Amino acid sequence: MDKLSQKVYILISFDHELSLGGARSYSKNMFDPSEEILHLANELQVPITFFTDILCALKFREWDYANFYEPYCKQIEKTVRLGHDVQLHLHPHWIESEMEDGQFVPSKKFGLGDFLNDNPPNNIPGIVGKGINLLTDICRSADSNYKCIAYRAGGYNLYPHTQEILRSLYEHGIRIESSIAKGFYFSSGVSKVNFRNMPDQANWTIPIEGPLDAIGATGLLEVPIASRPRNTLNNIPFLIKRVLHRKRSFDSGGWGIHNSNTGKLEKLSRLFPNSAWMLGFDDFANNVSDLKKILYHHLRIHQRDDIVIASIISHPKSMGPYNLLLMKEFVENIKDEYGGQVEFCTYRNIYDKFI
What is the pTM assigned to this prediction? Predict the structure, then answer.
């Protein structure tokens, strides 16, 4: 790509969470790969952000205090003490999930909007409030100045009842939203996401009354996940690479929530996508060149913007040795290629600088 015409801020973020359908080992599925990520980030001298699934911690405080909640709190505190960022990630299905024979059984009420008509504190404002309160308490044990100011929706679900969700986030102090990947579309039996028609700007302020593609004077600053169009033509070589490079895949001992809740026709339709690739280190089929293509596309379509703030999204449960190597090579490549034109930072950095 040609020399950049804008200042670029890249936020390396991870959805810090257990596999939503079940996990054989808390350590292998979340805690151990998260430690590897922290070690690598310190080695690369780049800050990262964990969007942590705080409602999972809230539930496991009741279910398994010693084996999950205590190590969870220690990992979050360590992350903050190392100078990284921790922000809000809500998977509300935990509110009504159950534990049976040592395994959790996830609720099918997947998105925050599914709790619109529930009684407090299990309605939308109540869930947002107790998530922020617990996360703030944990983080302030490591940093008394901690602020919970950024949000990523579980499963990217800002629908339905977007207005109620945005209002609750804003009223509880959230000022940055980071769930949108332009062009992304996904549908399963418990979730539907459609980000195909978003504003042309690299970043915009979503008014608290919505909708997501509106631009307001006040509201939540959208920091989208960098993306590139995904269609049937470019999906074919990707699928071939997934077969050729399957030995790179990392099995963290967890299973997803969507497959068991999705029909065969919907699964078949994913072979012919009209969606987007997200910039992230999760997939073993990608190499550094593939990731740079996503970033270059995102920067190219926003070349008229003087400032571009974009996120990278990955998940510790998907970060095996190859994925960690991918992260290392990508960061080193971008630093070498662009130097000071690209700055790796956190959501708290963006909040302090622009909000």
Answer: 0.96
